[in-house]
Amino acid sequence: MSAAITICETPRLRLRTVTPDDAAFYLELVNDPSWIANIGQRNLHTVEAARAALEAGPMAQFRTHGYSLYIIERRSDGTPVGMAGLVRRDSLPGPDIGYAVRPAHWGQGYAWEAAAAIVRHAQHVLRLPTLYGITSQQNQASINLLNKLGLRYERFSRLPPDGKETNIYRRDFRLD
Questions:
Q1: How far apart, in whole angstroms, are the C-alpha atoms of residue 133 and residue 150?
Q2: pLDDT, averaged across the chain
Q3: Structure letter (DSSP) for residue 76
Q4: Where are the beta strands (DSSP E) in 21-163?
Q5: Is there a contact between 82 and 73 (Cβ–Cβ < 8 Å)?
Q6: What's the start-to-end Cα distance of the chain, in Å?
Q7: What pTM value is reported for the model?
Q8: Which one of 29, 64, 68, 147 counts the least CB within 10 Å of its CB?
Q9: From residue 33, how far is each of 36, 42, 54, 82 by CA, in Å?
Q10: 104-113 b/e with 16+ CB inside 10 Å = b?
Q11: Under a CB-based contact definition with an 8 Å cutoff, are residues 6 and 15 in contact?
Q12: Residues 66-77: tens digit of each pLDDT
């Protein structure tokens, strides 16, 4: 099994790379009704399937692009509370920010804290010129968070592969 790499930290959180050992947590996260409603059905039903999805998804993206979705852990006790990071999609000209926090940890500011750290990482470490965000038109909490992160509505689209209705947000960085 591969060791996790710490990507960034905040006063309360650590964002680290995904490992195969995160499969059970990932399985719970992607099967939560809030994930299914706002992100989509992953059709993962076993830890083995979740492990394979992590290896083909976030772990492969990190190897290919140098960024991906990361596990959000509380620094105080190492408890995983969600995932946040950057996703590279063929349907967008640059990476988009993604985040999901387990409902048991909602209302504690973890999504904002983790997502703000990802924006800083994208701008100052990765030096990306542009960051995108996508969300459904009905996900007001995500729309509010994208706006708070400085991303602005750019356009409506139906993104492949399923043609799901999506709002696309964008933030350009000055790279001095």
A1: 10
A2: 92
A3: T
A4: 69-74, 80-87, 96-101, 130-135, 152-159
A5: no
A6: 39
A7: 0.91
A8: 64
A9: 5, 12, 19, 14
A10: ebeeeebbbb
A11: yes
A12: 999 999 999 999
